[in-house]
Every structure is written in C-alpha cells, then in structure tokens.
Amino acid sequence: MSQIVIRFLVGGAVVSVFAIVSDLLKPKSFAGLFGAAPSVALATLGLTVATEGASYAAIEAHSMMAGAIAFFAYASFVSCVIMRYQLKALWVTICVMPLWFAVAFGLRSIWLRT
Amino acid sequence: MRVRFDTAALRQTKWHQYAIRFLFGGLITAAAGIIAKQYGPVIGGLFLAFPAIFPAGATLIEKHEKVKKQKAGMSGTVRGRQAASVDAAGAAMGSVGLLVFALLVWEFVSRHRSWIVLLVATAAWLVVSVLIWQIRKRASTMRRKVHTVFKVNHVER
Which ipTM score applies to this complex? Predict the structure, then answer.
C-alpha cells in the first residue's frame, strides 16, 4: 500500500513539473513536445529498478516502445481531427483514446508476445 | 517563431488545474505499478507511455487561447481549437523522443547505473524531440517560400 502511495506522489510531482515547463514555453507546437515527456516512465522506472530490479525495468521499457508508437498514432490523429473538424479538444482527446489501446495492445500481441 | 519562456500562462492556470494534472499523473503512475504487478511487466510497460494528462493539457490550452481572444473582443473558439491541434502535433513529435527514451532504457538499464541511464535517456528524449521539431519547422518554412515563389512567377507570367 505504501508503495502505491509513493508511486502516486512521485508520479504526480514529476508529471506536474513537466506540465509547468510546458505551460511556460512558447510557441505551442514546441510546448506540445512536453505533452509526450517521459514523466510517468521516469517516476515508475526509478521505483521499479529499486524494488523489482533492472531486468524487470528493462522488460517494462521494451514494452513502453509499443506504448510510445501508440502515443504517436493517438496524438497525430487527435491533431488532424481537431484541425479538420474544429471539434472541442476534450471530446476528441477522450473519444480517440481507444486508438491508443488498439495500437498499443495490437503491437504487444504481434511484436512483444512472449 | 523563436522558442521562449512566457510566465503569463502560469498566472492564467488556476490551482485546481494543477491539482487535476497532479491527480492524473499520480493515478496513472500508481495504476502502471498495479497493472504490472497484476498482469506482468509487458502489459504494465505499455502504460508508461499512456497519454494520461494529455486531455487535461489540451483542454487547458484551448481554454487559455479562447479566453485570450475573448479579451480582444473575438469569439476565440476556432483559435482555441487550432492551438489544441498544434499542441497535439507537438506531442506527436515528442512521442518519437519517447520511443528513443524507451529504447535506451531497455538497452542499457541492466548493464549500467539506473539513474545515469534514466538521465541520459531523458536528455535523448529532449534532443530527439527538439530536433524533429526543428526539422518540421524548417520544412514548413521552406514549403511556404517555395509556394510564394511559384505564386509570384505565376502572377508575372
């Protein structure tokens, strides 16, 4: 339980730091880079190495590559849909979320199957 | 446009908007740990690149741009959504850096000190992301110039 609380606090703090840096930067396309900052990964992998060992963290990082490709597909699609149809960002970012799951788990099943 | 710091955005952001991002960030980090424990590191690892705070960030950018335009007497809806779209395009470029981050950690974390690997991988994420952003910016500037030259030539004829 205490480990979950530590993960929550560390994760929240790291994500917030990257979010603040993103808020401070202009132009928007450059600030957007920080929307894909490795904030959750930094918080998680650091703690994982300490508790489960480096090999376990390496497996997570390998799998994270599929997640990053899914993020690329997701963010590109969100950008295109908002620009083309001028829809509200909140709805588009939430409604397109299944795309991330489809790409990430699709890649996992064909590429990372162990 | 040159990259610069603008502290005005910090004044526009309310405390509860920071709290939401802290909450989502914390929740996804905790969830990634729980998922890894339950279903193993392969499934858990996928969630290290989950766009958890992306919807909150994009919504915030849309709102800020809209408010800015409304203060100038315009509706700001279109401008706000364009800003959110540009932000998402930036995140897509950043995700290529994220891929490089994951690749470096996967390759080196078992053989070297973890904090050094994480530090170098983070630096690599930043360098790769900025490089892609620069290339894309130069390409679009070039496209605009070529377009203008063609337009001028067409008019002269």
Answer: 0.92
Give the torsion sign (CA, B63, B78, B131, A73): positive
Calculate ∠ Cα B136-B5-A8, nearest 5°.
90
Please write the tens of the pLDDT for every residue from B25-42. Answer: 899 899 988 999 899 999
pLDDT tens digits along B41-70: 999 999 999 998 888 888 888 888 888 777
CB-based contact, B19 to chain A, within 8 Å:
no
CB contact under 8 A, A75 and B36: no
Which residues, including other chains, have CB under 8 Å from residue B123's CB and lie 6 or more apart? none
Domain boundary assignment for chain A: 1-52, 55-114
Q: Residues B85, A84: contact at Cβ < 8 Å?
A: no
The DSSP letter of residue A36 is G
* DSSP conformation letters of B35-57: HHHHH-HHHHHHGGG--SSHHHH
Neighbouring CB atoms inside 10 A of B67's CB total 12
Low-confidence ranges of chain A (pLDDT < 50): none
Interface test with B, best of A9, A10, A26, A28 (most B CBs within 10 A): A28
Q: Is B87–A35 a contact, with Cβ atoms under 8 angstroms apart? A: yes
pLDDT under 70: residue ranges of chain B: 1, 154-157
The B residues from 59 to 118 touching A (CB cutoff 8 Å) are: 59, 61-62, 77-78, 80-99, 101-103, 105-106, 109-110, 114-115, 118
